Amino acid sequence: MSNPQVVSALRRELASVIAARQAAKSDPKLHAARLAVRAFQAQRMADTHADQLASPDTRAAAQFFLHDLYSTADLTDRDASLERVVPAMERLLPAAALATVADAITLDALSERLDAAMADRLGETFAENDYIEAYRKAGTRADRELQIDHVASVGRALCELIRVPLIGSTLAMMRGPAKLAGLGELQSFLERGFKAFKSMKDPRAFVDTAVQRETAIMRRLYAGEAEPFRSRSG
């Protein structure tokens, strides 16, 4: 996509995320349930990808995925700030970096919608079996496939970003201007992702492994298998 198309998509997805989070915050019970769903999922993903979190080579990238792309923190203020600085982003960010941000926000918007549907069914307290049943009923398989596709897209965008000539020094040079433009947190997000992926021996293999595992779990969930979160590798 061209930069104007990326910016248009970014604005649309940001509006979706902000509306969903504001709706959840206006209902204390729904907000608490949403946080409970995200906490459960964050722990599940930490268990699924425990080896990637433990490995010195992939630890930073795994933490980036878990904490930066799937945070349990309240990001309402960040989103509102991000919405205000979209014009500055278009002016200051390299095209590859802008596309990476757009991919991440698109993933965030879809995850927020699916999490809200789960939270509405589950409430604040639930067991694993309750979660499994809600997963199968909230959203569709196509939604979940698209969510994983976006995870892959963000990961591959970062793989491409680290290949852009001089991108590391460009991001470093942008720290001052980005802070002045209100893009400090976004700049930090990009640098964390860049550093995490740049330090890996094979970032594409990391992304492929994570996507394959999440796809396998999604398929087991919809197939009605017992213990869908357990690895079948033994």
Q: What would your notes on this structure say?
A:
With about 230 residues, the chain is mainly alpha-helical. The protein has one domain (about 5-225). The protein is built from 13 helices and no strands. The protein has helices at about 5-25, 30-50, 50-55, 60-70, 75-85, 85-90, 95-120, 130-135, 140-160, 165-175, 175-180, 185-200, 205-225. α1 packs parallel to α7 and α9 (about 140-160) packs antiparallel against α13 (about 205-225). It is globular and about 50 Å long. The model has no long low-confidence stretch (mean pLDDT about 80).
Features:
234 residues; mainly alpha; 13 helices; 78% helix; globular
In short:
With 234 residues, the chain is mainly α. The chain is 78% helix and 0% strand.
When the domains are counted, the total is 1
Count of helical segments?
Answer: 13
Distance between the termini: 42 Å
Mean pLDDT metric: 82
The percentage of residues in β strands lies in under 5%
User: What characterizes the major β-sheet?
Assistant: none
The portion of residues assigned to helices is over 70%
Write the layout of secondary structure elements.
Layout (H helix, E strand, L loop, with lengths): L2 H23 L2 H21 L1 H5 L4 H10 L7 H9 L1 H7 L2 H28 L5 H10 L3 H21 L5 H7 L1 H6 L3 H15 L4 H21 L11
Helix pairs in contact: 1-5, 1-7, 2-7, 4-12, 7-9, 9-13
